Structures are given as structure tokens and as C-alpha cells.
Q: What sequence folds into this?
């Protein structure tokens, strides 16, 4: 039983880390109705920028502020150069644009900051502490708390602020939002900048665990089933989806894996998401679209 | 009059330049393709490896005027460590140079597999130092593939011997438990039959635990390892799986000095991201790191001091991957040198270089003459033995640098040779290859 609890707690905490990446996708999807293929590249770019600036001898908090500034500028630049020309275009055009962006940002990150792998210490050890025989990672707890704060903040932002409501309106219909005076261009720039901030947080936490390296772009693979489960438009959905995926995959790997050869952690969350799709195509917290025909 | 004179002068200069250019084109040049990866997920290690390889080629050109008076030329092609790009680079470069490509060294098992049939047809050897098929040691079946120095199987054998040494003798392995934590890919699974054979021989329990690729998340695997309470963990990792494994081991409190990793988990790129957690971690090695070797110092003095080095960051010189690249260069250049002894001092084709690779004799004395004494074990290849050595050593990360953790450990060929033969025979049967009779090869 103790081992079961340990696996589950570990899974839940790992799931929160997935949620953090999933949040970036949710933000862009909520504001433009588009799946942002470039989110992984943004995570890499943010982490690489931060660690490179810090290695120049810049203090932690100043490096963080400079990186945040760069991510905001990047968000504005993406709106100006790429998205502005795609207003009212089919979502698939915007999606294709984000694929292009992904390759561009990955290349830009390595061109500007180099290809070297960096370590990133946030001052929180990954050593476990013992709670009645169950090992819990301090780092995972810190990450979970940070993610919780971020989710709560973003949920409030979308639900309670004028800007948040404007974002949701834009996601529903670009044309309609424009016609009622919502400044679409500003909205997109803001939301990409916020997605850049979320990418920075995710990049720092994942970078601290895996090192700041190209492989950070791969952490998005863990976020996809979270999105399917939680719904592409729900900030709380990202966190609930993350918890289900994290706990589900770990328990499946430990208890189901030995019977089917092991190494099931990669595909199990997708299968779980598929089952959810059959029952709730919009995800647990996603918006149900009813169209009149 | 002035105009005519000017025209004549211009014409004379043009003719002279043309003659000079033609003269240069006719001078013998040996072409070495460089299918490197300096961008993408593995760029950090790839840049250093190919930087070291190119530096060695340039060193030979600068100090000796090439090999036997034949200038070494090269062209890089970016593979990004992708199989399709690798095949494209192979096709683009295979016919370049006076006699075509000398040999290919892809530093990628995937690309090596993807080009193996083509290379055999084109009679161009593939140099696979520390990667690729272990059964290619059998040159009677694989005439164009050279897993030089040591293969994955030899390394697996050395890992068991090293663990035996740590326990105080091979007999102490009996009853012990070893977890093989492997990358969920063909690469990761390649050593399983070898480890199982050794488990049978020495009576230890082998528990195989798979990490789905790319290995960014390993919590459940390490919780399972903690539950199993093994004596050692053999880590067969690649890329991001290595730092993720080290961090996860720290998280469950597994001692890092009980992890014995593959050499692809044994570079600075693998341990620096893991930070403090990597202290004490052990990994295999087929080429020693550091700047203490005369060949490395020669590169610094001859190339970097004159602004001719390949890498912009000189801190990379002497790192594990850089030195591996220099060793790659030494093996390739030596193959050309040996082949020139038989075929003459001219541009050699792939098939001729293949003969050189099959007759390498890098004795300790020769390695010393090359400035690489003890950087690698002695290597002597033949038709029957394309590996030429099989020795592996282990090193330990002390938080700042790699320190030797063992001497060169020989493979247990009494276990490996039958496995190599069985696997090579199976491949020959599948591909309809009639193995060469190595006793007739000279």
C-alpha cells in the first residue's frame, strides 16, 4: 500500500509539471482557437535565454526580468510579423504558421545562444523527504505549488477580468470580436506574451530537472494527452488533466507494465485520452460546441 | 597600345591562374566526407566530436602536408542526427573527390543502419567507433563495416567485469541483483542478450526495466528500482535520458556510484545538466578525455594558436566528445596511411581504404608516436576482427571532471564470440550474403 501511495503521489506531482506545459497551449487556444505547435520551442527559447544571460554573470532576478522582457517582445513580434496577416483565416492556416514558428524559434535559440547543454540550479534540491515511509521530492512539491499559483492566477484572469473576457470572445469568433470593438491585435500580442511567460516558468522547472537543452522541446509530448483530457480551453482543466495523466501513467507503468512488457508510459496517457474522447469529445472542462445546421 | 598591353597582361595573369588552378586540381587529394550534426537535439556533442575530427585532419595537413604527400580534403554535411538527412548526405558526398568518398563516420547507429546496404554496394566503408552493430566485428559477413576499438557488446561484458571488480571478484556476482535500465529503442535493447548470457554464467539476477524514449520522465522506473533494491544499475541511456536518470536516482536515494552507464551517457553534456546529483556517477569510455595528450596539445599549438581551429569555444578541447572526435580522425587517417602502403601514395577509393581499415595496427608504440599513448587501447584489426580491441575503461564524475575508475578492461570473448557469430550468420542468411573466407584474405 505504501508503495502504491508513493507511486501515486509521485505521479500526481509529475502531472503538475505536465500541466505547466499544457497551460501554454491553453492560453493560445483560448485566444485564437489554434493549437500552438511552437509551445515547446518557446519553452526551449525561454530557458536557454535565461540560463545564457545568467551565465554572463547577471544576477538571477535580473536575468529573469530580462528574459521575461525578451519573451514579451517575442510575443509582440509574433503577432506583428506572423499572426496579424492571418486574421480571419481558417484555423489550419494559423496552425501551419505555428509549425513554421516552431522550427524558426528552435533554430533561433541555437543560433543566438549556441548548442551547449547547460545545468540550471534553482536552489531547490531534488532530494526526497520521508513522510511515513513515502518519499516525496521537495522539488516536485515546489513545482506543484508554483503551478497551482499560476493556474489560479490565470483562471481568475480569464474569468474575472475584462481582458480575460475579451480573450475568450476572440477565441470564439475573430470577426465578431472585431465588430464589437475588441482590439484583436493587442489581444493576440498580450496572450502570446503571457504564453511566453508560462513557457519561461515551464522551461526553468523542466530545465532544472533535465538540463537546459534541445530535448526541452520534447516535454510538450507529455502535455498533449493532458489537453485532450482537460479540454483545450480550460485552465483548471489543464491541471486536472495533468493530475489524471501523471498518476495514471505511473500506476499503469508499475502495475500494468510488467504484464505487457513495460515501457508503456508514453502511449498509456494517449490511450487514456482516447477513452475520454469517446465519452467527452470536448474534454473534462472544455467548451461544448453546438452548431445550428 | 596601352589597351593592348593591359589586355595581354590580364590574359597572361588569367592563363597563369588557370594553370595554377589546373595544377592544384591534379595534385592528389584524399576526400573524407564529414556527415556532422551541429544543430538539433544532439548538436552539443556532435559539434565537439566533428570539431575534434576536423582538427585532426587539419593537423595532419599542417604538419605532414597530408598523408604520404596526399592532401586530406573534407566537406561537411549536416545530418541533424536524422536518418533521412544522413542518407541524403551519403548520396551527396559519396562520389566527391578524385576517387570518391574514403569512408563515412556518421556517429549515429540509425544512419549507419540506413546506409549499410548502400555502402556495401558502393564499396565505401562505414566507420562505427563505439556505435552501430556489434556483430559487424565479423568482417567475413560485414566487409564494409568497422565497429573499431570496442562495441556495445564488448562494453556490456566490461561492465559486468567492472562490477565484479567492485564486488571483489567475479565469483561475488552470484546471487547479486543488477537492473538493466534501458532506452526503449533498438539501441537500448541491443545488449540484453549479452547481459542475459553473463547473468547465466555468473549467477546474478538481471532485471530489465524499460524507459520509454526519449526518457524525460523516469519516476516510476526508479521507484521500481528502489523496490527491487539492486546492487547495481546498468544504465543504457542516450541523450536526455541520462541526466533525467541521474536526477531520478537522486530523488529515490539510489547511490550514483552504483550506476554504471554506457559511454553515450559518459560525457560532460550528460552530467552537467544533472548538477550535484551526478557526483560519483560511473560511465564507460573508449577514449580518454583531457588535454594532457601530446596530440591534443599539438592541435592547440598548431591550429588554435594560429586561429585555425575548428571550434569557436576552446573550452571544448579535451572534453570527452572532442577527444572521441580526435580518435575518430586518428583511426581514419591511419587507415588511409596503411592503405597507401599497399596501393601507393595517391587518392584511394573506398574499397582501398577498406583494406587499410582491415589492416590497422595501432600498437601502444604507434599510439605513442601519434601522441595518443593510452588515450585508447591498442587496436589491431583483421578480416575476422573488425573491432580490433574490445577494451573499455570506466570513469567517475567528481562534480567537476571525469576521473579514471578502472584500467582498460578486456571483453570476455568466450561469451561474446559465439553471440557475434550467431548474429552475423543470421544476418548473412537474411541478406543472402556468402561470408568471405578470412584465411584467404591478405
A:
Amino acid at each position: 500500500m505504501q508503495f502504491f501511495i508513493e507511486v501515486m503521489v509521485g505521479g500526481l506531482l509529475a502531472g503538475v509539471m505536465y500541466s505547466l506545459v499544457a497551460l501554454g497551449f491553453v492560453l493560445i487556444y483560448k485566444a485564437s482557437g489554434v493549437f500552438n505547435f511552437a509551445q515547446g520551442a518557446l519553452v526551449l527559447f525561454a530557458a536557454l535565454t535565461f540560463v545564457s544571460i545568467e551565465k554572463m554573470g547577471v544576477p538571477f532576478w535580473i536575468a529573469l526580468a530580462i528574459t521575461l522582457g525578451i519573451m514579451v517582445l517575442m510575443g509582440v513580434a509574433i503577432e506583428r510579423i506572423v499572426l496579424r496577416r492571418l486574421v480571419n483565416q481558417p484555423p489550419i492556416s494559423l496552425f501551419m504558421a505555428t509549425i513554421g514558428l516552431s522550427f524558426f524559434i528552435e533554430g533561433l535559440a541555437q543560433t543566438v545562444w549556441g548548442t551547449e547543454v547547460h545545468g540550471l540550479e534553482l536552489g531547490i534540491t531534488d532530494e526526497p523527504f520521508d513522510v511515513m515511509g513515502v518519499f516525496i521530492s521537495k522539488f516536485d512539491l515546489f513545482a506543484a505549488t508554483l503551478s497551482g499559483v499560476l493556474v489560479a492566477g490565470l483562471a481568475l484572469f480569464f474569468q474575472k477580468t475584462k481582458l480575460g473576457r475579451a480573450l475568450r470572445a476572440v477565441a470564439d469568433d475573430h470577426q465578431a470580436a472585431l465588430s464589437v470593438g475588441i482590439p484583436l491585435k493587442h489581444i493576440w500580442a498580450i496572450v502570446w506574451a503571457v504564453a511566453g511567460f508560462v513557457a519561461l516558468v515551464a522551461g526553468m522547472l523542466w530545465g532544472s530537472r533535465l538540463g537546459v537543452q534541445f530535448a526541452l522541446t520534447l516535454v510538450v509530448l507529455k502535455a498533449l494527452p493532458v489537453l485532450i483530457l482537460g479540454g483545450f480551453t480550460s485552465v483548471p482543466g489543464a491541471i486536472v488533466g495533468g493530475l489524471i495523466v501523471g498518476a495514471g501513467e505511473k500506476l499503469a507503468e508499475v502495475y500494468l507494465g510488467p504484464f505487457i512488457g513495460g515501457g508503456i508510459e508514453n502511449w498509456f496517457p494517449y490511450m487514456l485520452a482516447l477513452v475520454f474522447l469517446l465519452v467527452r469529445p470536448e474534454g473534462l472542462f472544455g467548451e461544448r460546441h453546438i452548431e445550428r445546421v | 597600345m596601352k589597351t593592348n598591353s593591359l589586355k595581354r597582361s590580364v590574359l597572361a595573369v588569367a592563363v597563369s591562374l588557370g594553370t595554377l588552378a589546373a595544377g592544384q586540381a591534379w595534385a592528389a587529394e584524399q576526400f573524407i566526407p564529414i556527415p556532422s550534426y551541429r544543430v538539433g537535439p544532439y548538436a552539443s556533442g556532435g559539434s565537439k566530436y566533428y570539431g575534434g575530427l576536423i582538427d585532426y585532419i587539419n593537423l595532419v595537413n599542417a604538419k605532414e602536408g597530408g598523408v604520404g604527400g596526399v592532401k586530406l580534403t573534407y566537406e561537411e554535411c549536416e545530418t541533424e542526427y536524422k536518418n533521412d538527412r544522413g542518407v541524403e548526405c551519403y548520396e551527396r558526398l559519396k562520389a566527391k573527390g578524385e576517387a570518391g568518398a574514403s569512408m563515412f563516420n556518421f556517429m549515429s547507429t540509425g544512419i549507419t543502419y540506413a546506409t549499410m546496404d548502400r555502402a556495401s554496394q558502393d564499396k565505401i566503408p562505414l566507420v562505427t567507433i563505439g556505435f552501430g552493430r556489434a556483430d559487424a566485428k565479423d568482417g567475413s559477413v560485414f566487409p564494409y563495416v568497422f565497429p573499431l576499438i570496442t562495441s556495445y557488446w564488448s562494453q556490456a561484458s566490461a561492465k559486468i567485469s567492472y562490477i565484479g571488480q567492485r564486488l571483489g571478484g567475479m565469483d561475488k556476482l552470484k546471487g547479486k541483483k543488477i537492473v538493466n535500465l534501458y532506452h526503449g529503442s533498438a539501441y537500448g535493447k541491443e545488449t540484453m542478450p549479452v547481459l542475459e548470457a553473463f547473468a547465466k554464467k555468473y549467477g546474478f539476477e538481471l532485471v530489465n526495466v524499460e524507459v520509454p524514449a526519449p526518457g524525460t520522465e523516469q519516476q516510476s522506473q526508479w521507484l521500481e528500482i528502489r523496490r527491487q533494491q539492486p546492487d547495481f544499475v546498468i544504465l543504457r541511456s542516450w541523450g536526455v535520458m541520462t541526466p533525467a536518470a541521474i536526477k531520478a536516482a537522486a530523488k529515490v536515494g539510489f547511490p550514483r556510484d552504483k550506476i554504471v552507464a554506457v559511454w553515450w551517457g559518459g560525457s560532460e553534456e550528460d552530467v552537467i545538466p544533472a548538477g550535484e546529483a551526478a557526483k560519483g556517477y560511473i560511465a564507460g569510455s573508449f577514449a580518454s578525455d583531457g588535454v594532457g595528450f601530446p596530440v591534443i596539445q599539438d592541435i592547440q599549438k598548431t591550429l588554435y594558436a594560429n586561429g585555425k581551429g575548428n571550434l569557436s569555444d576552446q573550452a571544448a578541447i579535451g572534453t570527452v566528445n572532442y577527444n572521441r572526435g580526435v580518435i575518430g580522425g586518428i583511426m581514419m587517417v591511419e587507415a588511409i596511411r596503411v592503405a597507401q602502403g599497399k596501393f601507393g601514395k595517391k587518392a584511394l577509393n573506398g574499397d582501398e581504404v577498406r583494406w587499410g581499415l582491415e589492416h590497422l595496427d595501432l600498437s601502444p608504440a604507434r599510439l605513442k608516436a601519434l601522441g595518443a599513448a593510452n588515450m585508447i587501447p591498442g587496436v589491431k584489426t583483421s578480416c575476422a576482427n573488425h573491432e580490433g580491441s574490445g577494451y573499455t575503461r570506466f570513469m567517475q564524475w567528481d562534480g567537476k571532471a571525469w576521473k579514471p575508475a578502472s584500467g582498460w578492461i578486456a571483453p570476455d570473448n568466450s561469451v561474446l564470440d559465439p553471440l557475434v557469430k550467431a548474429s552475423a550468420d543470421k544476418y548473412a542468411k537474411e541478406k543472402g550474403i556468402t561470408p568471405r573466407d578470412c584465411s584467404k584474405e591478405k
User: Anything to note?
Assistant: Residues 153-285+395-412 of chain B form a domain with the Rossmann fold fold (CATH 3.40.50.2300). The longest strand of chain B covers residues 177-184.
